[in-house]
Amino acid sequence: MINKYLYALILLIFSVSIYAQESKKDVNSISREEVLQMNIEELSAYDLEEIMKLMDIVGASTIEELYELLLNKDVTSASKSEESLFDSSLSTTVLSYEEIVSNGATSIEEALKLVPGIIIREKTNGNYDVQIRGGQNMPMNNMLIYAENTTTLVMIDGRPVFNYGMGGILWETLPVSLGELDRIEVVRGPSSALYGPNAVNGVINLITKETKSDTPLVSANFQGGTLNTIIGDVSVKKQFSNKFSAGVSYYLESRNRGSEKIYAIYDDQYYTLDEYNDRNAVALWDLHIENDVYNDPKRGKEKQGINAYATYNANDDLSLQLSTGYLDANAITSTIGDTPSPYNQRISYGYYTNLTGNIYGFNLQACLNNTLQVFNKKHIGWTQETEQYNISLDYLLKFNKLSIRPGLSYQSIYYDDRDHIENIGDGYFNGRVSLKNYAVSARFDYHPTDKLRFVAALRDEKYNKPDKWQPSFQFTGSYKINDNNLLRAVYSRANQSTFMINAFSNYTWNLEGTSNSVDAVHFGGSAKPSMMIQDMFEIGYRTRPAKNLLIDIEAFYNKSKDYSALMPDSMRTNVAANLSTYTTLYTSYRDLDIKSEQYGISVSADMVLSEKLLLKAHFTYQQSKVTDLLDLSRNQVAGLQGAQYQPALTNDITNYYLYITGQGPYADAPNASYSSGYQPGESYYKDMDNEAIPSFWGSLSFTYKPTDKLDITAQGYYYDKYYLYSQYETSSNRPADPKYTGHIDGKFSLNAKVNYKINNNISVFVNARNVLNNDTQEYVFMDKIGGLYLAGFNFKL
Amino acid sequence: MKKKLTVLIMICMSLSLTGQQSMFKALFMFNFAKYIEWPNHSSQNEFIIGVYGHDDIVPELKKLASTKKINNKPIVVKSVKTLSEASNAQLFYIPESKSGNIGEVTSFFKGKSTLIVSEKKGGCAEGSAINYILQGGKMKYEICRGNIESHQLKVDQKLISLGIEVK
Question: How many CB pairs under 8 A join A and B?
């Protein structure tokens, strides 16, 4: 039986080859099967041009293509020049658009769940906390704002989109949609030497698609589903000639929260807005709020914008790319002003322009961002007109084994609240304030041999606040054992910049008539704010043990210092003639002795198991600890200051009152004011673990392509329990045994997407995020995050 | 039994698909030679193609060598461990697995009339004359006139226009 079939097969092959030898077929009419039947001898009858056509007919082997797409990526953010990701001497990940689409991520933040070392926790539908490796919540036992990630620099096509108001990234204000992205490049570890301040824990560079000759004229992506979620974008792009291309994109994202309730910290309860307002009227938490606290408490996120792109390539020596856009966004999320509810509405609208160019070897980037930013709709004074200008210029000098990239950069940022307050004094800054910095930098890339590489990136940055130069550096060495194994080591230093609130806070928080123990809190800036500095040492090993497998291992240790936070300077109580008192707490950005240490390891693996099955996995383990932490909250320090003079104040007023009402002996009138600048002593300082970031998290995803048309992806994402230690853990104003605390349980969520390609123009899909509807909180005091179920399509023409 | 046979055919087909790349690379290389002019045209009786290390392209090239000629000379394919074994190669191929050694190869063949073909991102920037790449899932080649002419070779404009020129 076998022989019969084999004989028939051999006969078939033989007869086909005889037939093929007899005639050289026309390449314009030959079929793929016919080409596949040919042997090399037959094919050698064709000339090069014909061979290329035949190759097009056959197509590359799918598996080779997959190796190329998934395991042989390029990256530019790690060195500012395009290089093989495998050769990068830094901890680097590139997430392609195809991987993002296949995963089904509904936002850029969610897509980052695929990147090793990044942990994502959702606060409300579509609004996230994003951290690279961790090390946040410094200082602990304070406001939630210090748990925000202020140490990652996010860029769009190299343009920094950092929030200089209080540091961090306002993700909903990024003027770009997933559909516009070509890839996301992530560099973990201090990178200020390449990208300037705030690239402390790393850099996330969102890179948009170029318009090429094969770019679809029209592309559109849409999905909609539960929680009134609508996410879509449409682009029209065209390459008009080899020299000029242009395009325009519109995007929209709109989502409801899973609940319309907001959390009241002091009652430890979730309330509807009406319930909350009723309770506030009795409890007197906060009386000086604007009427319209939220546009709509159900709405988690609304974002829409338009972008325009143009590229002009005059010749090899001159090319320019211009992009500009307008964005309108708002989100209900945390966290400016934690109390009495951490839920804030942020609003943002404005435009940006970004010009990049290669001009006779010089790389130029010039950009501006002009946005009106409402950081906290609840209170007057938090509306700022913001302007940001960046310009950078560098040049790549190439020698035999050495390349040098010297560069210059300048940045200025302005915040102005004057047009949004009735009187000077009502605002947060009460004026137009500015932060400026400029830098000189150089990056040396030396290859003494084919296997060995040393990189030194140095940057010295001059700031106006504080008025000083701050150097940063990155030294790396890598040894390519062979083509499939690379060892590398990094020693680097980066720093935060000053943020507007650190330098220019000038705000009086009116608490008169509320249940608070003070009548006002004054927030002041520091004339010489300290800028956090991190030193990191890292070793990495990248290996390709088989052609279809790429493994990346990185072990890191970092040490940070020079933190600052809003802490009490003094408390003062003024006594009026009628013996009424008015107490003000004066706080300012004070330097802290606290230091942070962290060590950890990330491992990632990308594997092409077969043409039909792809695997992508990563995990991170980390431990953080702090030393010299003042384990007292702002309120506790204020309480200790008050305690220094309260007994005398009470005594003086009581005695004088008894005297003037004829109930007691003579007593002097109380002083006009009593105050204390007491600062806690050494006994209040502690060393402890920082558990604000889970010790473990990771992702495992499979993509299965049973046919050319069908594509199924499933991703499991897990993070371990964590403990975000904030001032609310020690607050005496909350119930003794609160239900909601900083202790958050570990969570596993499963995401799945099934995509069906109807033809080359249109695909349809169903997409389930957290398909098992594991409905627990991911972030302290925020929403329970359940399942999100969507359906949609991708279209291109 | 049918099942086994189907599996066998599928294995054959998948092997032939992965083998396809090597076959086309060999065919490309054979055709490159038609558009290149070597100065020492008649000084050698054989056309020597050197391949650095073991690679699937070697058997494909040997199949071609058994029936074809380049510049009317029989083709000799040498798979070499050291460069000196192929010091008189007219065409030298550096497979992807050896692509870390482009620098070594270009300096070894410096001044010699050898067409260096590689398969590495940015291979031309490191000195190779022609470099295979995968673009949009298709195999293409980059070509650098300067790197060809620096080896005293002349290149037909057609070869450049069919590839992706790198300057």
Answer: 91
